[in-house]
Amino acid sequence: MVNRKELDPESSPAAAYGARMRRLREKRGWSQEDLAGSLECSSQHVSAVETCRKPPTLPFSRKVDLALGLTGSTDSFEREWREMRRGSLLEGFPEYVGYEGRAVEIRLFEVGLIPGLLQTSEYARTLANGDVQRGAITPQQADERVSLLAERQAALVRPTPPMVLVVMDESCIRQAIGGPEVMKAQLQRLVEVAALPNWVLQVSPFAVGARRSFNLPVNLLTLADRSIIAYAESQAQGHMERETTAVVPMLTAYHQLQAEVLSQAASVAMIQQE
Fold first, then answer.
1. Which residues contact 130 (CB under 8 A, 6 or more apart)?
2. pLDDT confidence of 86, banded at 50, 70, 90?
3. For the segment 37-74, what is each residue's pLDDT rounded down to a tens digit?
4. Which of 96, 122, 132, 125 is nearest to 219 (CA)?
5. Cβ atoms of 236 and 97 closer than 8 Å
């Protein structure tokens, strides 16, 4: 075959996806044109996915499954796509995101970094690129991470948006991520969000010291039925908590934290001084 590109399935999840699709296609004696006809796309698109020049999508994966008779199986391309998409995320976080999109109230506490729901795309991209440079994730996973964050932010823009309460440790605004322009735009984003009626933004200054309730990031979601879910992360994994006996003390600690930190007006003033 002329100009056939050899694939290395070990190079990335997307490469493994493309190599498997090619192998199953050729096993059936199909050309790229044959498969493209079943997928209602061009043979160039099939080639681009097989050679990692284009990432697969969920609709594309479902069509491949239908064409190859893999729908609903453990070997489905939809399943592989979902694993690719979540491969760079901590265990437990994808489940949390599903609840986040339905929450009526979101309470966040963050240390060191601007909370994801408040990050500009440039800030988020800088963080993702840093993980790529350290070898923690692949460039494809970095793209997926930034894309997922954009989807999470977009999910908050709905007819009845959730109330979002954010407490950030002062380190979040002091730590420079990216160049001066990236941080300038990020801090301006915080100021703009603080002016929205469904957001409350507060900074926990270093002076709070031992009165700060949490030492790790904490997320608390209130759902439409008023049940509350807590999510917290360690370096290795995320953990969802639904038991009232565990969640209520965290909610109480969050209220206590809000009483100790700066008001929204004072917080905005601190951000604008940066």
1. none
2. low
3. 999 999 999 999 998 888 888 889 999 999 999 998 87
4. 96
5. no
- pLDDT value of residue 37: 94
What kind and span of H or E run contains 50?
Answer: helix 43-50
pLDDT given for residue 240 in this prediction: 83
* Delimiting residues of CATH 3.30.870 domain(s) in the chain: 93-273
Q: pLDDT tens across 173-182, in order?
A: 999 999 999 9
Six-digit token string for 155: 């999910």
Domain with CATH 1.10.260.40 in the chain: 13-86
Q: What is the second-level CATH architecture of the domain 93-273? A: 2-Layer Sandwich (3.30)
SS3 of 231, please?
Answer: strand
- What is this structure's pTM? 0.69
Please name the helix (run of DSSP H) or strand (run of DSSP E) that holds residue 110, with its range, or none.
strand 105-110
pLDDT at 141: 83
Quick one: which of 172, 154, 162, 163 has its CA closest to 270? 172
Candidates 1.10.10.10, 3.40.350.10, 1.10.260.40, 3.10.180.10; correct CATH number of 13-86? 1.10.260.40
How far is 244 from 239, CA to CA, in rounded Å?
Answer: 15
Phi-psi domain of 33 (left: phi exceeds 0; alpha: psi -120 through 50; beta: other)? alpha
DSSP H or E segment with residue 151: helix 139-155
The secondary structure element, H or E, covering residue 232 is: strand 228-233
Question: What is the layout of strands, in order, in the sheet containing 218-222?
Answer: 199-204, 163-169, 105-110, 218-222, 228-233, 238-241
